[in-house]
Specification:
- The complex is a heterodimer of chains A (265) and B (272).
- With 265 residues, chain A is mainly β.
- Chain A is 5% helix and 43% strand.
- Chain A contains 1 helix and 22 strands.
- Chain B is of the alpha+beta class and 272 residues long.
- In chain B, β7 and β8 form a beta hairpin.
- The longest helix of chain B is centred in the first third of the chain and has 32 residues.
- The model of chain B has no long low-confidence stretch (mean pLDDT 87).
- The chains are: A mainly beta (265), B alpha+beta (272).
């Protein structure tokens, strides 16, 4: 079944001795239900060009590999794939140099690759496994002693949602930045604590919470607010992938952390 | 027979002696038990969020002080005069101190290690030819478990007076690889290829940027320093993968490593 929209994330009932594969451009995942066990194989082969899809796989087509992992779970029942954001902050490096002039505001749309998490639904939600769909490079943000380990992501800062190609393996994160200072704000890299963000599902794409950043100058605290509601750029959004570390709105510690990030440009 | 003898002996003792013996036993049992409970409570509950090293110091401090207090109480029950004992202890202490200078030196070294904190329990250190994980920092010595699972005890005095490298103090490190490439290779091409290798390796950090330095003109080739930053836990993965990457990518690009060679010129007519 070719899944052009986000239907690849639909709940599915896998009966005993049935195998199902999820195909993404940078990762393929096979899940097989056995008596009392889930068997999972996750491979990151050369680029899959057959489109994002979920398909049943016969036992003959099932890949032979020593990397199959077995998870013991007695209850059979539907499983729920859930897109979640990466487990570390993401340092976004825009593909072009951008400078926000004093007093200006801008809205950008960032694409952040999601992780594939598979959960049981019976008798309760229980995580079977999770894997990044795309392998991001690791990077260090801050000085070598007090900085933090992050994922690096070179991407385009889209200024309109129309230029963002709908995919089911990237979450679009709206980022509103206001330069409330007298100095230019040059964008070279932005550290986003994506582990605080939820993933919302629409018909054709995934979304993350909107971030509102107010830059008050290199020597002032930069304010960062996570918009708790679903982004308003598309109708019919529903909360789908919960944040790894839910944040209660304004977070002073992280705000100061981001202050260093922003003044570190 | 034996029990009858014991019973007869007990009956021969005066009630005063029996009561004192009972008090001593109770002091020992209850006192040591309370010290043990206090040490456990402090370690598990009060200092729950402290480092393992501080927990260990607190546990030992409570243990030793508690033991001394119990001992003093028992000696008091036995009728030993503490003032006389302390006077005698002073004289004995001087004699023991002279005879055990090394131990005292180790103890002072241990106090310095505890206060200066060059490393803690769980850190990986290298001193001399020994590299391993700190298991404990005691008053006389530190204990290390090496990566090939050997137990090494190093006296504190030796640690204080020698160079110690703490490999896990900072969260990221740089791995420096030194190798030589043959003379005649395109250095710009080598630099581009190394940058590409670093970018493509999942264990190498994008930032700080990798270091590529053409270090020196050596006898057989040009020495290259290739430094890659990595997160502490990724050491083995990076080391193995980067060695494979360099070997295969250099071979594919036709870049040769330097190997010892001699150029011999034979001038015509010089050999008879």
């Amino acid at each position: 079944m070719d899944k052009t929209g986000t239907a690849v994330w639909d709940r599915i009932d896998i009966s005993t001795k049935q195998c199902v594969a999820w195909r993404f451009p940078a990762r393929s995942i096979w899940v097989e239900r056995m008596e009392n066990e889930w068997h999972v194989l996750s491979l990151s082969p050369e680029k899959w060009r057959g489109g994002v899809r979920r398909e049943p796989v016969s036992r003959a087509q099932k890949p032979t590999s020593s990397q199959w992992r077995h998870y013991l779970h007695k209850q059979s029942g539907p499983v729920q794939p859930i897109p979640v954001l990466p487990d570390k902050p993401v340092v976004v490096r825009p593909d072009r140099a951008l400078t926000l002039l004093p007093g200006q505001e801008a809205l950008f749309f960032l694409e952040i690759p999601v992780w594939f998490r598979l959960c049981t639904t019976v008798p309760r939600h229980l995580r079977i496994f999770e894997e990044p769909i795309a392998i991001l490079s690791k990077t260090w943000f801050g000085d070598p002693i007090t900085g933090e380990l992050c994922y690096g992501l070179a991407t385009r800062l889209h200024q309109g949602i129309d230029s963002v190609e709908p995919t089911s393996f990237n979450a679009v994160c709206p980022l509103s930045i206001a330069n409330d200072s007298d100095s230019d704000l040059a964008f070279e890299k932005i550290c986003l604590h994506v582990e605080n963000l939820n993933v919302f599902r629409a018909a054709k794409r995934l979304w993350a919470n909107k971030l509102n950043v107010v830059f008050r100058g290199p020597d002032q605290a930069t304010q960062i607010e996570i918009d708790r509601d679903a982004p308003r750029f598309e109708k019919g959004l529903s909360l789908f992938g919960p944040a790894r570390q839910p944040s209660a709105g304004w977070n002073i510690r992280r705000t100061f952390g981001m202050l260093k990030s922003f003044t570190d440009f | 027979m034996f029990f009858q003898q014991v019973s007869a002996w007990l009956h021969s003792l005066s009630p005063d002696v029996l009561s004192r013996a009972l008090r001593i036993v109770l002091t020992l049992v209850i006192g040591l038990f309370l010290v043990r409970v206090l040490a456990v409570v402090v370690q598990r509950y009060i200092m729950r969020k402290s480092t393992p090293q501080r927990q260990m110091i607190a546990r030992k401090a409570i243990g030793y002080s508690g033991f001394v207090l119990v001992l003093v109480a028992v000696l008091g029950e036995l009728g030993v005069k503490l003032t006389a004992l302390l006077g005698a202890a002073g004289i004995v202490g001087i004699a023991v101190g002279i005879a055990s200078q090394t131990s005292v030196s180790n103890i002072i070294g241990g106090l310095f290690l505890i206060s200066e904190k060059p490393f803690g329990i769980g850190d990986v250190i290298r001193t001399g030819t020994t590299t391993g994980i700190i298991q404990s920092i005691d008053l006389l010595s530190i204990k290390i478990r090496t990566f090939d699972n050997l137990f090494v005890r190093i006296p504190n005095e030796k640690i204080i007076s020698s160079e110690v490298v703490n490999l896990t103090r900072f969260p990221i490190r740089r791995m420096d690889l030194l190798f030589q490439i043959a003379y005649g290779e395109d250095l710009s091409g080598v630099q581009d290829l190394l940058e590409h290798i670093a970018r493509g390796n999942p264990w190498s950090l994008d930032e700080p940027n990798p270091v590529i330095v053409f270090n020196d003109f050596k006898e057989n080739g040009i020495e290259v320093l290739f430094g890659l930053w990595f997160s502490q836990p990724d050491f083995v993965e990076l080391k193995n993968s980067i060695m494979k990457d360099i070997t295969t990518r250099f071979a594919a690009a036709g870049i040769s490593f330097a190997s010892p060679h001699r150029t011999i010129r034979i001038v015509e007519g010089s050999i008879s």
